[in-house]
Amino acid sequence: MARKSRTAVLKRQREARKAEKAAAKREKREMREPATDRDSDVATREELAGYGFPVDDEEPESEES
Asked: Are the C-beta atoms of 55 and 48 separated by less than 8 Å?
């Protein structure tokens, strides 16, 4: 078996630490922002009213055929 050089071992260790740090940051971000699926680009009624769009107070009835 070939003997591994010290620089190769250190490089692998650096890469492993970097991957672990990135994984920890991903997990931390997911815990902080789990509601990104609920947030969308659709404006709420209050936001529409703030922009000056006419907003009805009643929900529109859907037509089912």
From this structure: yes
